[in-house]
């Protein structure tokens, strides 16, 4: 090869190898082509090309089993540069937690710990649906999982350690069976153990569920969906660190049993972490701690202790008065230090004064049992409740406990308004949402409103969990519900005040809650032996103030009903609290909760009956899918147009249209627009809005009810004589018309004058004016879709149909010919139509009756049209006098008329009504009336009256009172 190259170009011999084509992986130019050299090319065999070595990653792992699930901890393979990194695997779900700390000395007086949790869609093999096709800002679930990791690890950092620490947790793969939240918390603990950061771990985090009364350790997502308990518990070997509970009214006794089980199970996570740290952990680094010298602390304590005691022993101080007095003391101490030139004392002044405050308050509570505001240890602050203070809204409530005040409002929406969740595990949407807002003015501060706040999301979710347990099932209450909680004033436990206010607002909105839910926060003041770290003495405080939360050891939020607990959140400040003290705190929490429930029940104890002006309306209608496609329009444009014009919300599913309107007026407006697009069942006496599409000499053709056409004869234009149709109506004009019948050709006959008041005249014959309905009458039987197949087969021969939605919506109840087809026939029949003027007038007094699809059943048979009675006599044959009509003789199809009273037996019981046997093979239907009796049994005899006929000629009956 070298000799050939010399012959071709001697200069190639002098080119360094680094500039040759083989060096860059290309072939020699041949036949004008440039290609890549294969890895086994013979041209490289003779050269001294370095061979890439194989890197061997030294990994360390630990395997163990908890709750019948195999768990693996691994380090050394991924994220090797992080101060500590661990991959935790449970079945096919794997998570990664890393930890890093800043270098250099810290010049601050707090621990800047940041915990970030992220779920990326690649973990389940999905590309994000966002415009950029990548994940955006943290979602609510990610913020909540970050808080779940932060709360148990924060108390274990040593006092005075103020270096910045960042924990990052992410999901590498998810099989959807396990919730990654507690996995990342345990992995973060293991990563901190491997790092050189001083930390008092490890910790163990466990989840406990309960199914059919049996506790389940580390339940799967499927098991959690049927569990009435979701307990997340974190602890060290002998103390509790964090607790988070969502339950369905679990008793205090059962919860204590779950905690006693959770502690030893969580401890099983500790030894594997210790063994892994022994194999691959780093030597703990000597970080500089920001400690206060004893001399400086004593100087500040001598200056501030007595004035602080004077403030805290005076119960007349309010929140802000007390704060101003304490700030004045701090400024006095600052001036004294400035005069002495004590720079060290000035740097640590705020932190030291806060420590003195803490000692004064805690010593007084333990020794004297008296709190800052003069209350007893188990006393709840004064309460104020008010429900329905904003009557225009669906529901509202104002709740105050002491100086804490919360305004809660409820908004009801369509099922489509439910929040869509983009999470790796859990449900895809939720219909109940609680949004908690903590504006700066509630603490008399100036602040900037930003996006999602971790604290606001956490408090709102806690209140949401508490109220979710008492909501009615979705089948009974299909609305989407949003509670908005605005904190108006804050002095402790605003999240628990949100629970109380939200419960009252839900009842004010008319939502049938099973029970009221109330909540309050329990605190702890303890005295610790400095040599052993054990608690020597303690006091449990009921309904803590914001100051007691800040200066105390525990914030134990407990919410529930009279029957049990629905939600808990426990946060602590020291490095753990014994489980016995946690369980002991449940009893004073129950006592205080019952006091609050009594006040709430005195204000509102049952769901309120709503005012029709403001209460929302929900209607579910059945249509065929083809009909619903017409309603939605191209890419949903028609549906969005209706929603924009009316303000209502429409949700479309398979064969079902759900409409939610702000009030009854909006609902009628929406139904009117829906009827105009897709139509409804045509009824005699029904009033419809239509548009004139053509004007003829004998009348006008009107399009109405979803594209159907009817004839507005010239004789039905006005009570006065009309010479020309165009004098009264024109093409494109919108009219409200009444259906007055059907002619022999199958055309719908409409009347304009029937909707107008009749002028007074002495010569007029006294005829009752028709009553125009103002709202749509929904066919009861169209909603019966939940009937089982067996029941449908049994009722196939019964009179009432179980609603063939396709035939009801796609095919009109009465076949209508177009204007073009009827034009010639109507021209030849103009004189005869005008001659029916008297009969049309008589038909106006007909009550609202559905047009039967079988004309022979209604007395309007086209084959016997010439022999049948016309006009008023024909109508009177169909309708009998309601007061005198009765039938004690054997019934037959020809004898049954409108208004006739008969005795019937219950044949079948449907979801929305009854199938009644009238005898002689005749069956009719009775729909349940609001507030009327529904507990019927098959065979019961009822006295009923024929009120109308369905489109298939089936009698529609009503009870005789």
UniProtKB/TrEMBL annotation:
The keyword Lipid metabolism does not apply. GO terms for biological process: mitochondrial mRNA catabolic process; mitochondrial RNA 3'-end processing; rRNA processing; tRNA processing. Its EC number is 2.7.7.8. It holds the Pfam family PNPase. GO terms for molecular function: 3'-5'-RNA exonuclease activity; polyribonucleotide nucleotidyltransferase activity; RNA binding. InterPro entries: ExoRNase_PH_dom1 (IPR001247), ExoRNase_PH_dom2 (IPR015847), ExoRNase_PH_dom2_sf (IPR036345), KH_dom_type_1_sf (IPR036612), NA-bd_OB-fold (IPR012340), PNPase (IPR012162), PNPase/RNase_PH_dom_sf (IPR027408), PNPase_PH_RNA-bd_bac/org-type (IPR015848). It catalyses: RNA(n+1) + phosphate = RNA(n) + a ribonucleoside 5'-diphosphate. One of its GO terms (cellular component) is cytosol. Keywords: Exonuclease, Hydrolase, Nuclease, Nucleotidyltransferase, Repeat, RNA-binding, rRNA processing, Transferase, tRNA processing. Belongs to the polyribonucleotide nucleotidyltransferase family. This is Polyribonucleotide nucleotidyltransferase 2, mitochondrial.
